[in-house]
Design a protein that fits this description.
It comes from uncultured bacterium contig00025. By secondary structure, the protein is an alpha/beta fold. About 50% of the residues lie in helices and about 10% in strands.
Length: about 350
């Protein structure tokens, strides 16, 4: 049988395992059993995530509104200390919630207040119009805690056998580091092969795209060009993008899909470069733009964040990258576009064809 105290205990236990802390560092056992609300928080890189949970059946609207305003003001006071503050208000009630707050869409504001409504009778969680219904897989944890509190949790703590598809699938990002290491080793080998004195010839030797050679049958260059770079600066820029976006794609899409997206978008970028440019092309930037596209597709579909990155931040990266890529000389602009389009398309395909949002 559901009770708010049992739900509170289950949720605190689950989120504590993910480094959430109770507000004021108070131990869970010190929260009064008859308390109508409790709060948790977590620092995620430069982001502060606040979670306020309220038993709506025991709080009147005026008291709730005043408490909400106070909590938002407190979040605003903390905002200068972080890159962003998200305050999630979870209103739990039996049946349809009698409490509703209008929600704002996210445009980079901090703090950003998100309103969720948990129907404890049928285990449904909804959000205010225009707001994300999941952030950092909190939805899955909340529903699992509710099921546990109702005495029906299965061995895995999964509600009705379903989890939100928009969740962290990998805690480690080993493949991202492997790709970074491979690119770095190849750069070392290129310098040992005489890159300092004859960079173009060495780049061709290590698999750069040469249109005539590809058309003569050296199709492998469409793949190998992803791992050859024009110097350490070129490599450093691409490794930065790999660590920013690759780690998130690996964590949220999973290792296998991350590798597939990386190679597929890199190949698409190579093909685009082959037909639309005449230079000798090399570099992982097409695949990096593919990862950016996959991040954009994911955050757009989920209306949430990938470790602090949302679709607006991804869009800013895309626009700025395209502007600088077009303005700077010797940049394979068309490879960037080809990789980006392939990344958005492949990300959208994964989300549409293979993942169904839990209800």
């Amino acid at each position: 049988m559901y009770s708010f105290p049992s739900f509170r205990s289950a949720l605190i236990r689950r989120l504590s395992a993910r480094a959430f802390q109770t507000a004021g560092d108070a131990a869970e056992q010190n929260i009064p059993r008859d308390a109508a609300s409790f709060s948790l928080y977590k620092e995620e890189n430069a982001l502060l995530l606040l979670l306020h949970i309220v038993d709506v059946s025991r709080v009147d609207y005026i008291t709730l509104s005043h408490a909400r305003e106070k909590q938002i003001a407190g979040a605003a006071a903390l905002a200068p200390q972080y890159g962003g503050v998200i305050a999630v208000f979870l209103y739990a009630s039996a049946g349809e919630s009698r409490i509703y707050f209008e929600g704002d869409e996210y445009f980079g504001q901090s703090p950003y207040a998100v309103n969720w409504y948990l129907n404890t009778d049928n285990a449904e969680l909804s959000a205010s119009n225009g707001q994300p219904s999941d952030l950092f897989n909190l939805r899955g944890e909340i529903l699992a805690a509710l099921k546990e509190a109702s005495g029906a949790a299965d061995a895995n703590g999964v509600t009705s056998g379903k989890q939100s598809p928009y969740r962290v699938r990998r805690d480690t990002v080993a493949l991202t580091f492997v790709l970074a290491a491979v690119n770095t080793v190849i750069m070392f080998l290129m310098y040992r092969a005489g890159y300092n004195t004859n960079p173009v010839a060495v780049a061709v030797r290590f698999g750069a795209i040469v249109r005539s050679r590809v058309f003569d049958g050296e199709y492998y260059r469409l793949f190998t060009a992803m791992f050859a770079h024009y110097g350490w600066t070129h490599l450093l820029f691409n490794l930065t993008g790999l660590f920013i976006f690759g780690t998130r794609v690996e964590r949220y899409y999973g290792r296998a899909l991350f590798l597939i997206i990386y190679i597929f978008t890199g190949l698409c970028a190579s093909v685009t470069s082959l037909f639309l440019t005449n230079g000798i092309a090399a570099g992982a930037s097409g695949a990096i733009y593919g990862l950016i596209g996959a991040v954009f597709a994911y955050t757009w579909k989920s209306r949430g964040h990938m470790d602090g990155l949302n679709n607006y931040v991804a869009l800013v990266y895309i626009i700025m990258g395209m502007i600088f890529g077009y303005a700077m000389p010797n940049v394979d602009y068309f490879a960037h576009i080809g990789g980006l389009i392939a990344g958005v398309a492949s990300g959208a395909a994964v989300l549409s064809l293979f993942w169904k949002e839990a209800r």
